Amino acid sequence: MEIAVLAEDDMEAAFRIWASAFNQGSRASISGWREDLSRKTGHTALGIKAPGLMACLLIIDFEIYFGKSATVAMGGIAAVASLAEARGRGYAGALLRNALERMRDRGQAFSMLFPFSWDYYRRFGWDWIGEQRRYSVPTHILKPSPETEYVRAAGASDRSIIETLYTEYGRRYRGPILRDEALWNGILNDTDGHFNFTYLYEKDGVAEGYLCFRGGSEEETRVREFVALTSRARAGLLGLLRRHDMKIKRFTWTAPADDLFWADGYHKEIETKLTPVVQARIVDVVRALELWKPVDTEARHSRQESGPSYSLWKTIPRHGMRAPGNSRPSTAISM
User: Fewer Cβ neighbours under 10 Å: the N or C end of the chain?
Assistant: First the structure.
């Protein structure tokens, strides 16, 4: 069994495997895979040849916020797939173990992935982290607020303000991704099919929150991002959504598990679900422990922020020290 970094000449075979595994063999999906990879500045494709390409995966290089003062390298695992005739031979597991070694050597202390099966990846040390609230709210029950007068449409010149808001929000948690220009473009830019609508809450010359959405339908529209650093910013942005009552019946968005909208805006027509977010694992225990600092939960609650919440340290009691790939000798840490 040969595991190797895939060369450019191997990628057409990889695209074919991914089209088969994830897109019902759609030839049109290959252009999407190719375009997506072209936007990723740091990624590694691994594959197994026996002798032709049988299985492959991607390691995508990210950095994540890890509290107020730290960022840390993280390896995102994606596109884990095998040819149908090659499944059951342990190829995917071998690729994952090899990826762990490569991520550790590159200084990536953590790894995250979106699983097709929680149980499958748990065998290799990944487990669920954090919870996320998913709201579905009829527009007509949102409350009008005088704070909405401080909400305005954001333009291209506001990109740096929005990025600063996201950074301040991200540092309140462990896990949000530092975004490069390509990721921001995917969130804030128009597409060929839809305009993007981004709104900024700014009072007394200080920006405190933003939201954005595009597409959707009259029945339901998803807010792609809702970040509010203060309760008044949240009230203002929710009031802005209410003004869409004539054309959008319901909005959906996600928020951290400790978000209090469901309680503050309590109404029998609000639907809220608490769901797991992703699976993650520690790749380098020593580096992870060096970075660890307690979360200031009291301050976090007082700010009423919005956005996904990740708590990587839930993974330590389950598998952090003994997970496959964490067998190297440890160094004593003074805490």
Answer: C
